[in-house]
Amino acid sequence: MHEFNVCQSIINTVIEQVAGKSQNRPNILKTTVVIGALRPLVSEYLTFAYTYLAKGTAAEGSELILKRPQARGKCSRCGLLSERVEGSFRCVRCGGEKGEIIGGRELYIECIEVSN
Ligand SMILES: [Zn+2]
Question: How many separate domains does the chain show?
């Protein structure tokens, strides 16, 4: 499952970030991750994988908050931005069928909440 690989690197990054900032290991409470809707990753699996992989690490017991922003496309002809691009693109203003995807492929850690 791809979700496990993604969660493993999230947890590695989180632990690295937190360990680098403090001598005494703080508890990780929450990790907020932004994963665009175009990423073929299932939220439920991610949550499960995160909980599983966090066991025995500084992230154990912490909560994974997922943000799944919708895909966004920009019409190549008139430049209109639209919220959803699924499969084929069709501009609602000019009918253009070519769109550049400018969102929905995000994958990054937005914030890490820790306690001392
Ligand atoms: Zn257009």
Answer: 1
